[in-house]
From TrEMBL:
<dbReference type="Pfam" id="PF20463">
    <property type="entry name" value="PDH_C"/>
</dbReference>
<dbReference type="InterPro" id="IPR046825">
    <property type="entry name" value="PDH_C"/>
</dbReference>
<comment type="pathway">
    <text>Amino-acid biosynthesis; L-tyrosine biosynthesis; (4-hydroxyphenyl)pyruvate from prephenate (NAD(+) route): step 1/1.</text>
</comment>
<dbReference type="InterPro" id="IPR002912">
    <property type="entry name" value="ACT_dom"/>
</dbReference>
<dbReference type="InterPro" id="IPR050812">
    <property type="entry name" value="Preph/Arog_dehydrog"/>
</dbReference>
<feature type="domain" description="ACT">
    <location>
        <begin position="293"/>
        <end position="363"/>
    </location>
</feature>
<keyword id="KW-0028">Amino-acid biosynthesis</keyword>
<feature type="domain" description="Prephenate/arogenate dehydrogenase">
    <location>
        <begin position="3"/>
        <end position="288"/>
    </location>
</feature>
<comment type="similarity">
    <text>Belongs to the prephenate/arogenate dehydrogenase family.</text>
</comment>
<dbReference type="GO" id="GO:0070403">
    <property type="term" value="F:NAD+ binding"/>
</dbReference>
<dbReference type="InterPro" id="IPR003099">
    <property type="entry name" value="Prephen_DH"/>
</dbReference>
<dbReference type="GO" id="GO:0004665">
    <property type="term" value="F:prephenate dehydrogenase (NADP+) activity"/>
</dbReference>
<dbReference type="InterPro" id="IPR046826">
    <property type="entry name" value="PDH_N"/>
</dbReference>
<dbReference type="InterPro" id="IPR036291">
    <property type="entry name" value="NAD(P)-bd_dom_sf"/>
</dbReference>
<protein>
    <recommendedName>
        <fullName>Prephenate dehydrogenase</fullName>
        <ecNumber>1.3.1.12</ecNumber>
    </recommendedName>
</protein>
<dbReference type="GO" id="GO:0006571">
    <property type="term" value="P:tyrosine biosynthetic process"/>
</dbReference>
<dbReference type="Pfam" id="PF01842">
    <property type="entry name" value="ACT"/>
</dbReference>
Amino acid sequence: MKSHVLIIGLGLIGGSLAKSLQRHKDVHIAGYDTDPMTQRKAYKMGIIQSAPPTLESAARDADIIIFATPVGATLKLMEQSRFWDLKESVILTDTGSTKLRIMEAADQLETPFIGGHPMAGSHKSGVEAAKDLLFENAFYILTPSRKADEEDVMKLKELLSVTKAKIEVLAAEKHDYLTAIVSHFPHLIAASLVHQLDKEEKENPFVRQLAAGGFRDTTRIASSNPEMWRDITTQNNNMIIRQLDNWMNEMNRLKLLLEANEPHSIQQYFKQAKEVRDELPIAVSGALFSVYDLHIDIPDVPGIISELTGYLAEEKISIVNIRILETREDVFGILVISFQRAEDRERAKDCFDRRTSYDSYIS
Ligand SMILES: NC(=O)C1=CN([C@@H]2O[C@H](COP(=O)(O)OP(=O)(O)OC[C@H]3O[C@@H](n4cnc5c(N)ncnc54)[C@H](O)[C@@H]3O)[C@@H](O)[C@H]2O)C=CC1
Ligand SMILES: O=C(O)C(=O)Cc1ccc(O)cc1
């Protein structure tokens, strides 16, 4: 008999999970979204196999229910779930970026709840951005509630195994502490840098044109969904404030360094940061967010980027990011294209080797 999975919230994460879980031949995936257009689109795209009209009817048939909604909505849905007519063996789980508040709510439920957080994503949202391989090689954190037993955890792990994510069990508080450092607080920094640019721009409109390379790299995540980040920030408020306090101390240390303006100490500051950054497991399997960069030496001529991305599109190779490291007239520029999987990067390199005369290499 087929096992029934209900995914509530069919955006980037719910849609990607639905696509990935299709690999189980014995699983039926039902999908619900408060936005009827999204639900219809997910059904038409074949991401979900049924689109129930109400949550109550869908919940009745489900063996596993996944809340893939912004974390504020997830808390409300968990509360509503008390009134659903659920199977006795049902397991509830979520995909939210915060875990402590969710698990406090989970402890109030009679139903086993296993918190979940796939630590991969992007600044994009919505079902159109969903990708079946989004979670491959990424960590997927689980935080089981007191009512979830070992067998429940095994069932969920078995369901999620097809995502090819690396599943780890962690305490909710530890999860929120760590994600404040590597994910939540960096979002606030990105947003604040953009605010700073915006203020300057009033006096100096040209600054906007100059905001290339480094500024864009550092602030990409400021383009994320504001509703989602409102909820994350309010739920993990204390941990984020702790990081802000640390950051302000660090900024004071930096200010003293700048006021002293001593070249050696300033170089040391950058050198130490570079050493730590270069050692981060970013482009290898096992990273929080794995990306695989391919560098291509390109001449600075109009249309070059669309030519190269056009080849990738023809060969159905997906990219996650694209940027130019350096472009000056008469000088070669370096185009950096990031892929989610090493295999995609290999295929892209092969594609460029066959179809262009540009050198591409893994730096
Ligand atoms: N975007 C990312 O990179 C990541 C997000 N997450 C978490 O996953 C969850 C979902 O995020 P995304 O998919 O990016 O958001 P999204 O904005 O792409 O999709 C959320 C979907 O939920 C629907 N929705 C909202 N309230 C609902 C409700 N009460 N009932 C049913 N549907 C409802 C929306 O209409 C939308 O289609 C969030 O909790 C987020 O913190 C986790 C990992 C990565
Ligand atoms: O786009 C990025 O780099 C992200 O930071 C994506 C992301 C957003 C929220 C999460 O909980 C996990 C990953």
